[in-house]
Write a structure and sequence with these properties.
360 residues, alpha/beta, Nucleotidyltransferase, domain 5, 28% strand
């Protein structure tokens, strides 16, 4: 509840393949039923390639040391002293979907959920942790929509062990798509839309409707995928490739004629995957509405000319995500604004950590 969080100083921690990101918030005030927040801490630290691969912790002791460094005061301002954390789970190891039930919410049981999981989960239910919640309902809706999340036990247990080894107490582990959606979806929204999260090592599309997430899936597109393709074709140093990509985006480079061709082919594949996800959603989920727009976040979101290219090829409005729509931005440091699109998962986790993290 507002102003009544038993976990003093709880923060959000986004654990990625190439970085650890931390955000600590304080609840500011309520406006029109919405809570706004102030940023107390926002920091990140890079992870060398190979420490975490596709969400699997390959070097747990090295990741633990980086996590302790992130929590410490050296180079990051005040030391984080609270042990309470809400962390995300690796997106490749999780599954998120929604299911419609023809019975009232009060009559849905654990056995009903497990029966649906056996039909939908891409892995054995006995090897997974399952969580579920009733999605927002329209007054005239005759069915009950349930959002179901699942994670492989081995992945969840490894993340729990990592946090505990750094003297942290996880009060919640959350599917990354839900953390992102918490920041961007207006709970009163009646329309349908999509969130495109473009990361350094992985990307995802999240589809929402009537204020709640309905479907999420991974996409084979990332900053590292682009870097690898460019390095192989242009025979250039990796770091020079990264600088070139950031500077030029989807623009032609006279000195490297093949550059745009490589980038464009990967972008076309991204568009094809997004369209496939949209089609799957429209054809497999009941009572769907057309996707009205798409917002984009993640480290790759600001790649020059990408936003306009996606909007043109998908034929829907596309815009940058407003990652600070729930944050008091007055006197916000410039570096926080600069990194907003990359910190969105950590912000969503911190929002849950700040206000009643057990009841979300």
């Amino acid at each position: 509840m507002f102003g009544n969080n038993p976990f003093d100083g709880a923060f959000g921690l986004d654990i990625g393949d190439l970085s650890l990101k931390l955000v600590q918030l304080s609840a500011a005030k309520k406006q029109k039923g919405q809570i706004t927040y102030k940023i107390k801490n926002s920091r990140q630290i890079a992870l060398p390639i190979g420490y975490i691969v596709n969400g699997e912790i390959q070097q747990p002791e090295m990741v633990r040391k980086k996590l302790l460094q992130l929590l410490d005061k050296i180079g990051y301002g005040k030391k984080i002293t609270s042990p309470w954390v809400v962390a995300d789970l690796p997106e490749p190891k999780t599954f998120l979907t929604s299911v419609e039930f023809d019975i009232p919410a009060s009559q849905i049981t654990k056995e009903d959920i497990e029966f649906q999981c056996q039909k939908h989960l891409p892995f054995d239910i006995s090897n997974a942790y399952i969580d579920w919640q009733i999605a927002p309902q329209a007054e005239d809706q005759k069915t009950t929509r349930v959002l179901i999340g699942a994670v492989e036990k081995i992945a969840a247990d490894s993340y729990t062990y990592l946090l505990q080894s750094a003297n942290l107490q996880p009060i919640a582990l959350e599917v990354e798509a839900l953390a992102i959606a918490r920041v961007l979806i207006d709970q009163d929204r009646s329309g349908s839309g999509a969130i495109l999260d473009l990361g350094a090592t992985r990307s995802a599309i999240i589809i929402y409707d009537k204020g709640g997430v309905r479907f999420s899936t991974s996409l084979n597109f990332s900053g590292e995928l682009i870097n690898t393709a460019l390095a192989q074709n242009l025979k250039m140093d990796y770091h020079k490739i990264e600088e070139m990509k950031i500077k030029n985006g989807l623009n032609y480079i006279k000195e490297f004629p093949n550059y745009l061709k490589i980038i464009d082919e990967l972008t076309q594949e991204l568009v094809a995957q997004i369209k496939k996800a949209f089609d799957y959603y429209q054809n497999h989920y009941p009572n769907t509405q057309p996707i009205e727009k798409m917002v984009i976040c993640g480290g790759m979101a600001e790649m020059e000319n990408l936003l306009d290219t996606l909007a043109r090829r998908l034929e829907i409005p596309c815009e940058f995500a407003n990652c600070y729509q729930n944050i008091v931005t007055k006197n916000l440091p410039a570096e926080y604004k600069k990194t907003a699109l990359t910190m969105i998962s950590a912000i969503g986790l911190a929002m849950r950590a700040t206000i009643n993290p057990y009841n979300d």
